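Fold it.
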Amino acid sequence: MAHVKLTSVRKSFGSVEIIMGVDIEIDSGEFVVFVGPSGCGKSTLLRMIAGLEDITSGTIEIGGRVVNDLPPKDRSIAMVFQSYAIFPHMSVRENVGFGLTIKGVDKAEKEKKVLEAARILQMENLLDRRPSQLSGGQRQRVAIGRAIVRDPSVFLFDEPLSNLDAALRLDMRMEIGKLHQSLGASMIYVTHDQIEAMTLADRIVVLKDGQVMQTGTPMELFHNPDNLFVAGFIGAPRMNFFEVDAAPVGNGAYRIGAPDVAETVVTAKKPLPEGERAILGIRPQHLSLIDDAGAASADQGVLTGKVALVERLGTETIVNLSLPSGAVLIAALDGDNPVAMGSAVTLAYARTDAHLFAKE
């Protein structure tokens, strides 16, 4: 286990700046996920920590030691790639132990470490097979096993599950979570999949255009996004956004209204610029159906529209609502909800669950 610290880290390719002054601290034994859209710089940042990419400026520390000029082999890290990177002509046993062979570790010690890695990953019965005889998930286990035998201070994962189908991704996600619990190692994991980030991470770093948008636990980011980007990126289905008029009424509260949004009062987590319209954000999970006999309470806001699409997923029903302006509202209701296509419905949300952002 090791503490990892990035201070004012920048990376440029010629005149193009890819990483723009990133500051991140990862505690010893913590599982941190870098998440963001394609091209945001998350894999570049991981490769810089690994020593596979030079940094332009700033410092990277691993275990209290500045590693800017150290080659990958001297950083006490192990990296698992998206492409598995295992040798097709070697058995699983030879692949897992390859790094130890290169280091000249004696045969008995190497076999001991290989068997321990195989036990942790439950692949003892695969040791004599070749990669061509393995499934995608089994090949990824081999790649992870090769990392385990090195006994690194930090594990680095670069989108390791993106080549797997949905069922295998779920299985391997569970395996990686169990691995972190059993090893207690520091892990940094890169993905563009925010569901992977939410389910695996102790803490998430959300990146956009080479900058850190927000860092926090999964539920901190879900309930208290700092900005529109984080609010829209974290959470599935995506948060609903509406442009609204917002007039201050004191104590951080604003009276809001728009063609699609019934007038109500919402408290903003950050002050809004005066005289500008704002963006109201409502998560699909925070919307509930009001039946014909019911009415919204005093602490709720409402939206009314016509049901355009119903997706029944078992435990929940996703409803696409067409609003008067033509905008679409998405609601995640309980799975047994009887809402019908084409029906006019009213949805309510608790004002405390609403988010207000500056329009810019």
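The mean pLDDT is 89.
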